[in-house]
């Protein structure tokens, strides 16, 4: 099998294009599975039939979601187009995984308060930004100090989903605690600098264009990790941003402790951000921009909150009974 050399080429192509580490991990994983599925044959010897069979097997036998199947397809297309420089013909006959249409889980304002009340310190700050600014978990974890504008009350989200930048609000309620947090992390950064551990990973070609930027305060993570690491490429000791699982676990525990039975998570706070803005009367286009949605149809899923009781239709059980239902004992015979 020519796997190791091929995968090294894939890895190099991904890094040349400055894809995220999570994308690199996912693409390499799917390419390995694709090669194993086809008896460890080199992808050069494979084509439309083998690709179609692999993708269809994910839907038929592994019951993967539509988004997972699409990620596998993206990885394979990247392999052929960017690494092997071979165009893939139009793929016919793929069994497509069904994309379910789900109404998002949303917390009420009281439930949000109940969850936030059970969080403290960094996890409270991060969860408050998920709800108060509509951030995704990774967008919050990857915030850098230069992305915060206290004077203009705004946050710039860099390279969000789809590699897009956007601007959202910085909640006034968070500004004071966030400023205190930044004072502490500034002290941590100063101590790191004194022990040659104060550099940070930079996007794209910034490190080459601005050699000193990786040590500057503005480029440091808003929510740094508690431990440092040695970068595999440069050999420098650095501090990464906090791992998203730290926040995810804390929010899950807070939801459970609050006695909330909904299947809620960190992303539910983002859903609640959009829903509560819509309920407050803000227009759908504004919410679309704050959420960073490419298509307004994605934002439209939140309009279900305006269609109370089945699109505003009154149940026949309630017709003529607006003054209240009779007091009946459901167990009476």
Write the layout of secondary structure elements.
Elements (H helix, E strand, L loop, with lengths): L2 H14 L4 H17 L10 H13 L5 H18 L25 H8 L4 H13 L3 H5 L6 E2 L4 E4 L8 E4 L2 H23 L11 H4 L14 E7 L6 E5 L2 H14 L8 H14 L4 H8 L4 H4 L8 H4 L22
Antiparallel strand pairs: 1-2, 2-3, 4-5
Helix pairs in contact: 1-2, 1-4, 2-4, 3-4, 6-8, 6-11
Summarize the structure.
The protein has 333 residues and is mostly helical. Helix content is 48%, strand content 7%.
Give the end-to-end Cα distance, rounded to a whole number of Å: 75 Å
Based on DSSP secondary structure assignment, what is the total number of beta strands?
A: 5
Low-confidence runs of at least 5 consecutive residues = none
Biggest pleated sheet: 3 strands, antiparallel
Proportion of residues in extended strands: 5-15%
Class from helix and strand fractions: mainly alpha
Our count of domains comes out at 2
**What integer is the average pLDDT?**
87
CATH superfamily of the largest domain: Intergrase catalytic core
CATH topology of the largest domain: hpI Integrase, Chain A
> What CATH architecture of the largest domain would you give?
Orthogonal Bundle
Helicity range: 40-55%
Number of helices: 14
Envelope shape? globular
- Indicate the radius of gyration in whole angstroms: 24 Å
Side by side, the strands of the main sheet go 1-2-3
Name the CATH class of the largest domain. Mainly Alpha
Order of helices and strands: HHHHHHHEEEHHEEHHHHH
Your description of this structure?
This protein is mostly helical and 333 residues long. It folds into two domains: 3-83, Orthogonal Bundle (DNA polymerase, domain 1); 101-307, Orthogonal Bundle (hpI Integrase, Chain A). It has helices at 3-16, 21-37, 48-60, 66-83, 109-116, 121-133, 137-141, 172-194, 206-209, 244-257, 266-279, 284-291, 296-299, 308-311; strands at residues 148-149, 154-157, 166-169, 224-230, 237-241.
């Amino acid at each position: 099998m020519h796997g190791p050399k091929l995968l090294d080429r894939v890895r190099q192509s991904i890094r040349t294009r400055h894809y995220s580490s999570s994308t690199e991990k996912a693409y390499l994983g799917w390419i390995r599975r694709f090669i194993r599925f086809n008896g460890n044959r080199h992808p050069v010897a494979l084509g439309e039939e083998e690709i179609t069979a692999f993708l269809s097997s994910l839907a038929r036998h592994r019951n993967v979601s539509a988004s997972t199947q699409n990620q596998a397809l993206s990885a394979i297309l990247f392999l052929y187009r960017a690494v092997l420089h071979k165009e893939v013909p139009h793929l016919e006959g793929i069994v497509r995984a069904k994309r379910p249409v789900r109404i998002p889980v949303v917390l009420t304002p009281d439930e949000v308060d109940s969850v936030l009340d059970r969080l403290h310190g960094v996890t409270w700050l991060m969860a408050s930004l998920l709800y108060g600014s509509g951030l995704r978990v990774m967008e919050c974890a990857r915030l850098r100090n230069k992305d915060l504008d206290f004077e203009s009350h705004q946050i710039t989200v860099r390279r969000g989903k789809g590699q897009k930048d956007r601007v959202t609000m910085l909640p006034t309620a968070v500004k004071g605690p966030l400023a205190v947090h930044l004072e502490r992390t500034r002290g941590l950064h100063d101590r790191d600098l004194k022990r040659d551990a104060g550099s940070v990973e930079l996007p794209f070609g910034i490190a080459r264009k601005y050699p000193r930027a990786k040590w500057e305060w503005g480029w440091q993570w808003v929510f740094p990790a508690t431990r440092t690491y040695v970068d595999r490429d440069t050999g420098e000791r650095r501090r990464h941003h906090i791992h998203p699982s730290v926040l995810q676990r804390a929010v899950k525990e807070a939801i459970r402790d609050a006695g909330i039975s909904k299947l809620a998570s960190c992303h539910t706070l983002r859903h609640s951000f959009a829903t509560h803005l819509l309920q407050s009367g803000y227009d759908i286009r504004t919410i679309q921009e704050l959420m960073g949605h490419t298509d307004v149809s994605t934002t439209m899923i939140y309009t279900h909150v305006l269609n109370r009781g089945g699109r505003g239709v009154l149940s026949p059980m309630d017709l003529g009974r607006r003054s209240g239902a009779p007091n009946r004992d459901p167990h009476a015979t």
